[in-house]
Amino acid sequence: MLEKDWWKSATVYQIYPKSFCDSNDDGIGDMKGIINKLDYLKNLGVDVIWTTPMYVSPMMDNGYDIADYYNIDPIFGTMEDFHKLLDEIHKKDMKLIMDMVINHTSTEHFWFKEALKGPENRYHNYYIWKDGTPDQAPNNWASKFGGNAWQYVESLGKYYLHLFDVTQADLNWENSELRNDIYKMINFWLEKGVDGFRLDVINLISKNQNFPNDTYETAISDGRKFYTDGPKVHKFLKELTANTFGKYPGSLTVGEMSSTTIPHCIKYTNPNNKELSMVFNFHHLKVDYPNGEKWALGDMDFKSLKNIFFKWQVEMEIGNGWSAVFWCNHDQPRIVSRFGNEKYLKESGKMLGTAIHFLRGTPYIYQGEEIGMTNPHFETIDEYKDVESLNNYKLLLEKGKSIEEAIAILNQKSRDNSRTPIQWDKNKNAGFTSGTPWINVAKNYSTLNVENSLKDEDSVFYHYKKLIELRKDYKVISHGDFIPMYEENTQVFGYIRKFENEKLLVLNNFYEDEIEIEIPKEFIGKKILIKNYKDTLLESHILKLRAYESLAIYLK
Ligand code: NOJ
């Protein structure tokens, strides 16, 4: 029998199928490719695999624009391949959670095509329509991919809402027929035996029905307050859960929460509310957005990073909520290049791993993170593929940035930084494909790759493997309380975890400069569970942390 909160001691591994492993040499990763690499993931030790969307899609947003929820896109394989994948994952005693995008569909979806036929059509009201004239959008909300969030349809004299790309039309959750169709579809996958879902931007499904204008006084007053954690979001989530995964005990649900708040995340995840198992929030990944602006160069604001973690950790615990903890995913640049240091790839890669894996929450690893993959440092715009990056590149040039400046910003901020193929070995295209990869491989693959990492016992890979193991062995990691430490320190991210009579002190130097700190005396001479320098000693209460040095000390 599964414990009801089994995911507290589990680690989730995210696969971006397009860039994982290509079995048929068309340059695009696929399900057979994933199956071929399951032994590798088993060796790493992860418990759950999350695959980003593999449903039929025109791929304007790499699958987050679903055209048919009930079928697998041929670029990834067939439904038979899917069954085989699920089966193989289960045979290896791992679980599979699928990505579910139910805030919007592709405009290629049958529902949208029907909706275009007009208000009498059954599916018209599945989307959000407002009257207007070609030169006057219903309100000033911005699309998250740039520009206004409304698209005019001349034949209807109406606009539809798209918070993302113009080909991703927002669904109208106010409509119970739509909601029931969504539940039916989710149950179709649950019946196949999937173990849960990652729910895409799920806190955006309830829009303020007055659709008010925003002020544009700051980078975030762009309409989001009127649809983020909206008026009926908890009601909708409770209903969704009760009609679908709530009937499958032990299924794991993780909600992607855009621009959310702690009180809402407590409501989403406190078990009494019967909404979701856990949530992603992104506040800690905006500490390099100057004044909240993503598309500008910015350094990490370490003080904010710490404050955000501390606040979320402490308050989620008080409210009995549960977080997914992570640095990387397919929307975020590589963490070693971002908050670490490529010159200290091993040290900073391991330190960042320790810093996140010992927080209170379920850790997520994004493919390639476990070997310390870096940003690819693309040099020209042709190398970029992502719709958000291409839109913002254009906007940056329109705003007067030079090509060099715009590329420098994309180098730091583009989602493509994390979407380059996994570097399996030193062979052509890093062993990802023998065809032409859909996106270029990062140039450092000949040395930084899985094959080399497995041969090197000091690699980032083995550090991650150990982090995953420790979570299973120590309740203080999976279930302990969180206590912030060194709050004023400008270099060290430190904290204590506490469970019954066990304590864990976690220390991470986020900088190249050495720093001396004092540790509580009770930890002197105690067991170091994990470290990233071989010769770290614990002989006194004064500890000198070297460049990106990190360690976790355990006492009982
Ligand atoms: C969040 C997903 O992670 C991202 O990749 C996607 O573009 C948007 N949601 C829209 O679905």
UniProtKB/TrEMBL annotation:
Residues 14-419 form the Glycosyl hydrolase family 13 catalytic domain. It holds the Pfam family Alpha-amylase. One of its GO terms (molecular function) is alpha,alpha-phosphotrehalase activity. Gene3D superfamilies: Glycosidases, Golgi alpha-mannosidase II, Oligo-1,6-glucosidase, Domain 2. Signal peptide: none annotated. Its EC number is 3.2.1.93. CDD domains: AmyAc_SI_OligoGlu_DGase. Keywords: Glycosidase, Hydrolase. Belongs to the glycosyl hydrolase 13 family. This is Alpha,alpha-phosphotrehalase. It comes from Candidatus Cetobacterium colombiensis.
